[in-house]
Design goal:
Layout (H helix, E strand, L loop, with lengths): L1 H19 L10 E6 L13 E3 L4 E7 L4 H4 L11 E10 L2 E2 L9 E3 L2 H4 L3 E7 L9 E2 L12 H9 L4 E10 L17 E10 L4 H19 L22 H11 L4 E7 L7 E5 L5 E16 L2 E15 L2 E10 L5 E3 L6
Parallel strand pairs: 2-10
Antiparallel strand pairs: 1-3, 3-7, 4-5, 4-6, 4-9, 6-8, 9-10, 11-13, 12-13, 13-14, 14-15, 14-16
Length: about 350
């Protein structure tokens, strides 16, 4: 019996060791966070501890003897972008006015950031100097190009007054089985500063936020060449969506773009899908293959995609082809000379 118990304990120890692997860093990260109204370069120094809404804001993490990857227990994930998460709280007399944790402000990291002992990030930057891409999804496929503090200020319609802003940078720790651990075990580094908000700066905050989004989205994932869909497109043979008809629709419905090149993605399923209302009646039918477009606007070139549809007009008939949706907010920039 004692031998059986010993073997069971040994087995449990083995499986626990195999599942856990290398111990993770959990809880507070050793280091500091400093803030400035100018972008950081090589060192944060003492930084600043108070700001007004008329200033731009930048942050910097400085770790004690570890790398970003080590301190935040970042995994090497295949086909996924490395990231940290930022949470912003606006407080008055120690009370979080927003009501707590948000958890969907993902900061895109570069591979070289993971091996560094410090990290510079934008909080409310000068749009012309913005470098940090925030996203609402951890795969950076949507909801890109915003600043968490600006979003909080605008969303809350913050009143004029003096506040404290708390910034938390963290990663969501998982155990050896890949299960997310309790929040108090997440590696986190936080900092705080005083913030005076003035209503006379509302339009500036909103304008800077909009421009920052445009800049960071455009620069984060620029194409070095046209995506593969352009060299291996599908064929536009459906009589309702021929090459000529699509070209005319793009010109009519996207007048602010100069269309340089477009293709349909390859698609093997049913070309059209009918969308119905709650009573089962047709509303419109949409063309399943996306139309990828390389275009020029305001002197710059971008690549994105659109969807097409025909609105139901009654009696079993559908209206003319039209653009239903564009990926404009997530389109990526490309040098115009590379659109060939």
């Amino acid at each position: 019996m004692n031998k059986i118990i010993a073997l069971c304990l040994l087995s449990l120890s083995f499986f626990k060791s195999s599942a856990e692997g290398k111990p993770q860093n959990t809880g507070p990260v050793a280091g500091k966070m400093v803030f400035s109204n100018q972008p950081f370069t090589s060192s944060g120094g003492a930084g600043k501890t108070s700001f007004t809404s008329h200033e731009h804001l930048y942050g910097r993490l400085e770790l004690n003897g570890s790398t970003i990857k080590e301190a935040f227990s970042l995994k090497d994930l295949k086909d996924a972008y490395p990231f940290l998460v930022c949470d912003v709280s606006i407080m008055k007399n120690g009370e979080d006015l927003y009501g707590g944790f948000s958890g969907n402000n993902y900061i895109l990291l570069k591979e070289e950031d993971k091996s560094a002992g410090s990290f510079n990030f934008d909080i409310m930057p000068d749009p012309s100097k913005a470098t940090t891409l925030y996203s609402m999804t951890d795969d950076f496929s949507a909801g890109m190009g915003f600043s968490p503090l600006s979003s909080r200020i605008i969303g809350m319609q913050l009143k004029e007054g003096k506040y404290q802003v708390q910034i938390k940078i963290y990663s969501r720790a998982v155990d050896g089985w890949g299960k997310e651990q309790d929040r108090d075990k997440w590696p986190v580094l936080e900092g705080q500063f005083d913030y005076e908000f003035m209503e006379s700066d509302i339009e500036k905050v909103k304008d800077d936020s909009h421009k920052t989004g445009d800049v960071t989205r455009e620069n984060a994932f620029r194409y070095d060449k046209l995506p593969a869909v352009f060299s291996n497109p599908g064929k536009l043979t459906d009589p309702n969506a021929t090459t000529a008809k699509v070209a005319a629709i793009l010109k009519r419905d996207l007048p602010n773009r100069t269309i340089l090149k477009f293709v349909a993605e390859q698609y093997s399923g049913t070309l059209w899908h009918i969308a119905k209302d709650d009573y089962g009646l047709p509303r419109y039918k949409y063309f399943n293959p996306h139309i990828w477009v390389a275009y020029k606007t305001d002197g710059k070139c971008y690549v994105g995609y659109i969807t097409l549809r025909q609105v139901y007009s009654g009696g079993g008939r559908y209206g003319p082809l039209e653009v239903a949706w564009t990926s404009t907010k997530d389109d990526r920039g490309i040098d115009c000379a590379k659109v060939k």
